[in-house]
Amino acid sequence: MLSSRGVRRRSLTRLTFLTLVTLPLAFFSFTGTAAHADGPGSGTPWVISVGDSYISGEAGRWAGNTNNGESYHDALGNTAYYDNASNTAEQITRCHRSKAAEIHIGGGVNSLNLACSGATTSTDASGSYFKPGIDFYNSGGNQGQALMLQSFAATHNVKMVEVSIGGNNFHFADIVTQCVADWAGSPSWWPDYCKDDSVVTNNMSTSAVNSRRAEIAGAFQNIRTAMRNAGYADNAWTLLVSNYMSPIPNGSGFRYSESGYTRQSTGGCGFWNADADYANGTLLPKINQTISEAITNSGLTNVKSLNLSTAFNGRRLCENTVGLIEEKGLANWTSAGAVDKTEWINTIRTVSATGNYYIQESLHPNYWGEKALRNCVRQAWNGGTPKSGTCVRGANGLNANGEPNMVLQ
Q1: 223 by DSSP, 3-state: which?
Q2: Long-range contacts, 135-139 (Cβ 8 Å, 24+)
Q3: What is the pLDDT of residue 352?
Q4: Over 90: is that where the pLDDT of 323 sits?
Q5: N or C: which end of the chain has fewer CB within 10 A?
């Protein structure tokens, strides 16, 4: 999404949602240090992430949601998205590659996050913020993510590349904007649903889906080309394709009534029940199916899939199994049990401009969500022999790495 700072207003107006964001390559930010002779097949292994905001770490600063103020859930502080060599700024403004991002699995495995909030499969250099796609764009010091990957992989031993891409190609942010605007602008006795609005029907038409499938398949092929150009045989590395998780419950699972304004003014989840059911029953499955079909169409043979579609069930935004920090009687995000009592998806924010919140953080995995996904990715890495699987919640509590317990099935 484009971006602007924002906090959720009590007065509900037409939203301006910002898309998922940006990123060139001045410095590489990573965990670990490469040996002098590192390269394809030589040296400490690396895992790399490319794609959009759902893998970059957007919203990873915030642990749970609250209306009481930033300090109650600010897990990473002002440097949350800093990723340049000196940890003083973003390499590319509004990429929002957070320190909680899922690719940083540790355990002797180095990691690099090249993903960027707002990215589609193709680079967009026309807006206020540069958004590198998964391509070989190279102009004015700005590069596409495939070219960044190629340059890095040539001098590092990259064993796995994780990708999350396609949501912005489907204009997911525009769809969410329309759904929340329809909820805010119509009464419960005569609801205006977004599921039949043109922004949804046009983006989910057969022709649109076919185009998105081809674009996503092309992005996967660009990743393969980048690795081949860097000196890798196809069987020397693995592409791990992640899909998208459900961020909100079905209509019956919301803890706030769909009448009145509490659903958005308190919970930050202004969806009609019918639209939430459509999102979980039709929209998300179609997007994830398209990603799966794109893998087949790409022709890549070294692919594993990480299914995240139900990973956050029970911890979703406004779900009746969790609550705001204050609703659960917690002092702050560090209180015992906070990970199991609060949401793993960041609240939806409308247009305003104070504090350290960004509108573009809306409806993304927060700190707890990112840490849960990291647990999933580590299990998919499987000690260097990557495997496919469906990641779901495990037992309550945190593991030894401070992550929610997850199970890869």
Answers
A1: helix
A2: 135/219, 135/222, 136/222, 136/225, 136/226
A3: 61
A4: yes
A5: C
* Cβ-proximal residues to 104 (8 Å cutoff; 6+ apart), any chain: 31, 111, 113, 374
Distance, in Å, from the CA atom of 147 to the CA atom of 128, rounded to the nearest integer, reads 22
How many other CB atoms are found less than 10 A from the CB of residue 390? Answer: 15
DSSP notation for 231-275: T--GGGSEEEEE-----S--GGGBSS-SSSSHHHHTTS----HHH
Q: Could you read off the pLDDT of 146-191 as tens digits, one per residue?
A: 999 999 999 999 999 999 999 999 999 999 999 999 999 999 999 9
The CA-atom distances, in angstroms, between 29 and each of 18, 82, 97, 128, 311 are 25, 9, 10, 23, 28
Report the distance separating Cα 408 and Cα 386, nearest Å. 12
* pLDDT confidence of residue 36: 54
CA angle 120, 149, 77 (to 5 degrees): 70
Q: The tokens 């929209």 sit on which residue?
A: 283
Token pair 């590349």: residue: 161
CB 69 within 8 Å of CB 28? no
H/E segment holding residue 397 = strand 389-398
- Please tell me the distance from the alpha carbon of residue 259 to that of residue 134, in angstroms, as a whole number: 42
10-26: per-residue pLDDT in tens? 333 333 333 333 333 33
* Radius of gyration (C-alpha) of the chain in whole angstroms: 20
Direct distance between the N- and C-terminal alpha carbons of the chain, in angstroms, rounded to an integer: 32
Angle, alpha carbons 184-189-194 (nearest 5°):
45
* Cβ–Cβ under 8 Å, residues 194 and 179: yes
Number of Cβ atoms within 10 Å of the Cβ of 354: 8
Cβ-in-10-Å burial (0-12, 13-18, 19+) of 395 comes to: exposed
In whole angstroms, give the CA distance from residue 213 to residue 237: 23
CA–CA gap between residue 350 and residue 12 (Å, rounded): 8
